[in-house]
Amino acid sequence: MDIVARNNVKVSGRSGGRPMIFSHGFGCDQSMWRYVAPAFEDEYETVLFDYVGAGRSELSAYSAERYASLDGYAQDVLDVCEELDLTGAVFVGHSVSAMVGVLAAIREPRRLSTLILVAPSPRYIDDGDYVGGFSGADIEELVDSLDSNYLGWSSQMAPVVMGNPDRPELGEELTNSFCRTDPEIAKQFARTTFLSDNRDDLGKVTVPTLILQCSHDALAPPQVGHYVHQAIPGSELTLMRATGHCPNLSAPEETIAAIKAFL
Amino acid sequence: MAARDDARVTGEAPETLEDLYEDAPCGYLSTRGDGMIIRVNRTMLTLTGYRRQDLVGRVRIHDLLAVGDRILYETHFAPLLALQAGVKEIAVDLRCADGNRVPVLLNAVMKEQTPTRPEEIWIGVVAAGDRRGYERELLQARHRAEESQRRAVELARTLQESFIPPELPRIPGMDVAGMYRPAGRGDEVGGDFYDMHEVVDGWALALGDVCGKGVQAAVVTSLARYTIRAAPLRDSRPSAILATLNEVLLKERTDRFLTAVYAQVHQDARDRFRLTLSLGGHPPAVHLSGEGLISMIGHPGTVLGVLDSVELHDVTVDLARGDVVVFYTDGVVEGRGPTGFFGEERMGRALSDARDADAAGIAGRLVDEVVAFQSGMPSDDIAVVVLKIPE
């Protein structure tokens, strides 16, 4: 299996520099890092990739079994590390990828030796005193909502997103393309993401960790950021002015500055 | 009529730009980059039941969305707005002032910051209750169809597996392997089958191809397999067994016919194998001698399940060490690729190239080549059984 093609791996930046892996969350693909990753290319060797099932990864490599838990996604990260023989990398994970990075760094701290967690949440669903912000019914509603917004997939989108070099005109029609994938994969990724519970894993992290917490994040409220900070030994928490769940897009400068200050 | 048109052209019509905005035939919202609502038109207020002062400067677009849609907005649409400056036909539910939901479609564009104005998102809102309801029904119908399809495929696979023994018997002194590859994606029950079992003084092999696919073909395939197992009790010559199968098929009044090869191998006192076979409308078996010569075994016979009177012949050959005998269905030679049929010549070459492998290796090589010849999507089922007498 060619991992570089499978995960659409893109390496840029300073050859021989410290590796810095940027990892996208549920919804879109590596384009999420478009405004952030280039700022690190002078000093670091930047590695971007799409999880299997997202972006321009090879959808044929998707396995409902493997990606039923975040461990399968963590394996994607470690596969990329192994393929490129990366050690001592900075792992920057957005949204659910933050927990994927936590799992990968617990398994191979030699490869991932620093974690930057952007808008992380170890559990999205409320549980007793723990406030994740959502209920199980909310997540089912999300899955329905995905269905309603992927209407055109089967007939039109599949050939486009899966690459159709013979018909370049199809590319012109792409709307909402960065966030398109097979709806069945999107639905499973939604369930895997929002039904996971990684609270017990946080204490096992041994590498230096930075948590970036946005204001007004509908997916990861401030108390969740504090929870992650409390649970990961020696971690740092930076509260950002950026609003929403995607500071890497809405406030790239602030995101870059916070990461650079930590590194 | 002409007079009224003139009135409009000359500006006597009552619309002002403000009217056009406020009473536009779609809801209209403007937000800051973070989603905070800064302008809203009257159509939008009527649609949702809010007062202007409830929304402007107080509520973010997220707050108007149902929770599932809110997650979708954060994970899909907000990133898209940042990456490609516009999203279209987003299907969401808005939460109205009275707690009800109204299904809508949203189009949004990101307006970049200018010297006089900060970044804004402009959103058009179209009520789509009937359309969304219809879409939901279509979605449900599709889910049901997918579920039925999944069950049908599972049924087809299970049924198909019953036509092919999970493993062939071990025969002392002979290496045996069978391989089956369904047509296309394997979603339909094919008509190919094979079976191998012990008879009184040796082993019997049956391999056949029922015309057509689907449930009716499956019934006939099953009937054929069990008839062949039971038939040797009456007359054990291969031609007699195929004749019995012909009778049974005719009695069944099915319009399906089949082709089959039936063979028996017996071992004499000096451990030499003797093969006797009969062909019922089926291609002959291929014999590869230890020296690499290729010949066909069998005398053409009548297709089974069509005529009362069939002409079937028994042909016997002695097998030597190093000999390979290959039984196959027409999915092998009639596999159609870009350059025509796979054909007997290609089959002969594939078998010669693979002849040093064991029986499983030879069968695998042949099936792989036929499938590759058809770019991975064989048009017909392929069944292959290989007997090899090791050196």
From TrEMBL, chain A:
<feature type="domain" description="AB hydrolase-1">
    <location>
        <begin position="21"/>
        <end position="258"/>
    </location>
</feature>
<protein>
    <submittedName>
        <fullName>Alpha/beta hydrolase</fullName>
    </submittedName>
</protein>
<dbReference type="InterPro" id="IPR000073">
    <property type="entry name" value="AB_hydrolase_1"/>
</dbReference>
<comment type="similarity">
    <text>Belongs to the AB hydrolase superfamily.</text>
</comment>
<dbReference type="GO" id="GO:0016787">
    <property type="term" value="F:hydrolase activity"/>
</dbReference>
<dbReference type="InterPro" id="IPR029058">
    <property type="entry name" value="AB_hydrolase_fold"/>
</dbReference>
<dbReference type="Pfam" id="PF12697">
    <property type="entry name" value="Abhydrolase_6"/>
</dbReference>
<keyword id="KW-0378">Hydrolase</keyword>
From TrEMBL, chain B:
<dbReference type="Pfam" id="PF07228">
    <property type="entry name" value="SpoIIE"/>
</dbReference>
<dbReference type="InterPro" id="IPR001932">
    <property type="entry name" value="PPM-type_phosphatase-like_dom"/>
</dbReference>
<dbReference type="InterPro" id="IPR035965">
    <property type="entry name" value="PAS-like_dom_sf"/>
</dbReference>
<dbReference type="GO" id="GO:0016791">
    <property type="term" value="F:phosphatase activity"/>
</dbReference>
<feature type="domain" description="PAS">
    <location>
        <begin position="13"/>
        <end position="65"/>
    </location>
</feature>
<protein>
    <recommendedName>
        <fullName>Histidine kinase</fullName>
    </recommendedName>
</protein>
<feature type="domain" description="PPM-type phosphatase">
    <location>
        <begin position="176"/>
        <end position="389"/>
    </location>
</feature>
<dbReference type="InterPro" id="IPR036457">
    <property type="entry name" value="PPM-type-like_dom_sf"/>
</dbReference>
<dbReference type="InterPro" id="IPR052016">
    <property type="entry name" value="Bact_Sigma-Reg"/>
</dbReference>
<keyword id="KW-0378">Hydrolase</keyword>
<dbReference type="InterPro" id="IPR000014">
    <property type="entry name" value="PAS"/>
</dbReference>
<dbReference type="Pfam" id="PF13426">
    <property type="entry name" value="PAS_9"/>
</dbReference>
